[in-house]
Amino acid sequence: MLAKQLIDLEKAPDQPDLTRAKNQLKTSLMMNLETRPARFEDMMEMVMGRGHRKPPADFLREIDEVTPARLQVSLPALR
Q: How many CA atoms lie within 13 A of 77 on its CB side?
């Protein structure tokens, strides 16, 4: 079963599945930022790791830019 799932990673996801996954990820991201402690923690992690804070709108835009082709994985070792 695991080998089949790994092999299936070579196929690009269909658009409805990708849209659903992107919506779930964006919803999760925004819900996690609703509380003040979570926003503070997120801000501090970004400042410590990147030297600056990246606004949530940037993450949402990057999620929207994901395409099925970008998600395909090459698994030549399984062939």
A: 3
Q: What is the DSSP letter of 13?
A: P
Question: Residue 64: what pLDDT?
Answer: 95
List pLDDT tens digits, range 35-54: 888 777 877 887 888 887 88
Q: Is 64 exposed, middle or buried (0-12, 13-18, 19+ CB in 10 A)?
A: exposed
The tokens for 17 are 């599945």
Amino acid, res. 6: L
Find tokens 């819900």 and name the residue: 31
Residues 6 or more apart whose Cβ sits within 8 Å of residue 43: 53
